[in-house]
Amino acid sequence: xxxxxxxxxxxxxxxxxxxxxxxxxxxxxxxxxxxxxxxxxxxxxxxxxxxxxxxxxxxxxxxxxxxxxxxxxxxxxxxxxxxxxxxxxxxxxxxxxxxxxxxxxxxxxxxxxxxxxxxxxxxxxxxxxxxxxxxxxxxxxxxxxxxxxxxxxxxxxxxxxxxxxxxxxxxxxxxxxxxxxx
Length: 182
Prior knowledge:
The protein is α+β, with helices and mostly antiparallel strands. The protein is 34% helix and 30% strand. The protein has helices at residues 9-18, 70-78, 120-130, 134-138, 146-158, 160-173; strands at residues 27-40, 51-66, 83-93, 98-107, 111-113. Strand 3 (83-93) and strand 4 (98-107) form a beta hairpin. Helix 5 crosses helix 6 (160-173).
């Protein structure tokens, strides 16, 4: 099951290609109950703050169910070192059919709650506003414009020490995702 950038077939195709697999994975839109989008408490090598999910009673998150074969699944597992697969139940495909159980990648890092779905610069803006000390580390204000936020993301992509410092601050305020096997 996918959320965030992994709902984009081109992203999944690129991950598989980097793993030496050149095939497509069928995808079906679905809704997962009692789950909301959040930010994983880390900065990726690409300089972005990845999407994560967290338990939130009463919420419904649109996701994509992927149907990988074992080789594709192993490749995707290897591409997600900051996530662990958990089994979720009670998944509803958009056509009304039910899926008894599916694997979902849950962050190993904890989550920073988001006020709702945000663009990547919106996620950065949010964490700059709510994470103590982050503005000082990044040198960018929460109300900065798109160019300044994109420059910060590029700088984080190029500077492992900056990524580590930001990740440390994110993890200091992170909460558990609450996604034990369910």
